[in-house]
Amino acid sequence: MAAMLLHLLTAVALASNPPVSALDAVVLIHQGDTVCAGVLIDDAGTAVTAYHCVASGGRPRVRMRTGDQGIARIVGVDVGRDLAVLKVPDLAGQPWLEWVSTAPEVGEAIWALGHPYGASAPEGFFAGGLRWSITEGMISAVGPVALQISAGVNPGNSGGPVVNAEGELVGIVSRRLASSEGLAFAGRIETIADLASPDSARGLGPVGGTLAVAPVVSVWNAPGGVPSTGVQVNLAFRDRVVLCGVGRWALSPRWGALQYGDITWLGSEVRLALRQRIGRGRFAPRADAWVSAAVVESTRSEFLAGDVDLIRDSAWTPLVGGRLSVATGALELGYDPQGSGAVASVLFNWPGVIKTF
After folding, report:
1. Are 275 and 236 in contact (CB under 8 A)?
2. CATH assignment of 16-196, given 2.40.10.120, 1.10.287.110, 3.20.20.140, 2.70.70.10?
3. What would the pLDDT profile of 192-222 be if each residue is shown by its tens digit?
4. Do 202 and 195 touch, CB atoms closer than 8 A?
5. Tell me, what's the pLDDT at 306?
6. Residue ranges of the domains in the chain?
7. CB burial class (10 A; 0-12, 13-18, 19+) of residue 38?
8. Which region, left, alpha or beta, applies to residue 339 given φ > 0 means left and ψ of -120 to 50 means alpha?
9. In this structure, which topology does domain 209-356 adopt according to CATH?
10. pLDDT at 203
C-alpha cells in the first residue's frame, strides 16, 4: 500500500513539474539520415526546430513520444538564429508549449529537452534513455541572436526546446563548442511568430545547404594504375545538387615509378552531381549521379647514361559515375567514356558536415 501511494505521489509530482510535462510537446525529427529534436508550439501542429536540422530540404518526418507521427512542410527559416518552423497537420491537437516574447535573464534556471545521440535508437544498457530526455542548467549569457546555456546537450539535442521553470519555450538548442564542457548555445525565438505566419517571406529558398569534407581513397583501374588518397569537398544545395572538388595524391609515386617504370593515378577532379535520398533514418542511403572533369597524373622512369629521370605528366579526362552514401561513408564508381580507365573510391564521413548555410 505504501509503495502504491509513493508511486502515485511521484506521478503527481512529475505531472505538476512544468519542465517535465513539456516533454509531451517534444518531437523526434527524421530528415534523411539526420535525427534531431523539435517542439510543437500550437494546437495546429506547428513545430520549431534548428535550421541546420532541415537545411537539406525535403519533407521531414516528425514523431511524438506517443508514436503519433506526420510528414512536415518547412514554412519559415531564420538562418542567423538557426531556427526553422514546420507545419505538421497530422499532429494537430497534440500537446504544445507557449513561448516567451522576450529574452530570458542571465542566471535564470532552464532545462534542455531532446534526444542526445538520437541518431541510434537506444538498446541494451541504454534502452529507455537518450530519447525524450531532460538536462538542467541556467542562462549563462544572452547575445543578440543566441543564448549561452550550461545545460548538457549533445548531437540529437539540436532543435530541441529550452524551457524555463514555467515550462515556457525560451530557446531552441543549436550547438555546443567542440571539446568543451558547459558551452552550449540556443537560438533566440523572438522571430518564430513571423516565421510561422502564412504571409512569411522567410521560407526555405533554393540557395542553401551544407558544406562537407571527407577523406577519400581511390584506385585508378588503368594500365599502371596505383591507389591514391585525398580529400573531397562537397557543397550540397538542399541535398539535391552537389558541387564537388577532389584532390588526390598517389602513394609513393617515386617508388612506384622506379619499381614499375610507368604509373598513373587519378588526381584532382571537379564534379557536378544530382542527388536522390532514399528513405529516412540514420542509414537511409543517398544516390548521386555525376559528371566530372578530372586530371590523370602519371610518372615514368627513364634510364639515361646510368642516371634515372622521373618524368611527370598530366592530362584532362571526362568521367561519369555514381555514388551511394550512408551515414558512415560512401562508395563511388566512375569511368572515362573515352576508355582510358575507371575509378573506385571509398569515402569516410569524417569530419562530415562542417558548415550549414
Report:
1. yes
2. 2.40.10.120
3. 988 888 777 677 777 788 999 999 999 999 9
4. yes
5. 60
6. 16-196, 209-356
7. buried
8. left
9. Porin (2.40.160)
10. 75
